[in-house]
């Protein structure tokens, strides 16, 4: 499926657009190719766009004072990603966003997003839904991290990202669920033996 068709289908899951509105929306998008490990956004930069993944996978993460990475989220194909705090506040961001593999994205600048709100008001509803879904996901993730066992957090990861279970390096999954790669390896082996 062509990149523009994929993003239009994603949007039209939430709002109805005329063919002219679809065309206008696509005209505002900027395609971008990222190589594996290429950084799209660094901590401290202001996030000025939302990224829609058409192929590949992005990850959003922070780095602590000891240099450890803490993965907050992944965006495989057909997912949106941004540093929401920075995008909304237009203050320096707290996340790094990079490509876990060669990745194709379509970006929509904050300025073009504002233009869309005026020209195609249905997009206000679309981005409200996307923002609400993001808020719910982050709240659920926070509660999971506070109350679930590592095994349950892994099961939650599998439900949220079924296409990534076998696609990601175990180091990335371990970082997402908040355990060391060694612990994750032992835990996964134990789970596989149970099956």
TrEMBL record:
This is cAMP-binding protein. Coiled coil: none annotated. InterPro entries: cNMP-bd_dom (IPR000595), cNMP-bd_dom_sf (IPR018490), RmlC-like_jellyroll (IPR014710). It comes from Filimonas zeae. CDD domains: CAP_ED.
């Amino acid at each position: 499926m062509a990149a523009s068709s994929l993003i239009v289908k994603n949007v039209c899951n939430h709002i109805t657009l005329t063919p002219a509105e679809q065309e206008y929306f696509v005209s505002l998008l900027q395609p971008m190719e990222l190589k594996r490990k290429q950084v799209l956004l660094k901590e401290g930069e202001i996030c000025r766009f939302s990224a829609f993944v058409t192929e590949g996978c992005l990850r959003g993460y922070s780095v602590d004072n000891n240099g450890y990475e803490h993965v907050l989220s992944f965006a495989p194909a057909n997912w949106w990603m941004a540093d929401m705090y920075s995008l909304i506040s237009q203050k320096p961001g707290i996340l790094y966003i990079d490509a876990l593999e060669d990745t194709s994205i379509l970006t929509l600048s904050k300025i073009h997003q504002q233009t869309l709100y005026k020209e195609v008001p249905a997009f206000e509803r679309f981005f409200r839904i996307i923002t609400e879904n993001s808020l719910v996901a982050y709240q659920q993730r926070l509660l999971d991290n506070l109350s679930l066992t590592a095994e349950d957090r892994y099961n939650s990861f599998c439900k949220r990202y079924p296409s990534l279970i076998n696609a990601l390096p175990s180091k990335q999954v371990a970082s997402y669920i908040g355990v060391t790669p060694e612990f994750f390896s032992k835990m996964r082996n134990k789970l596989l033996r149970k099956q």
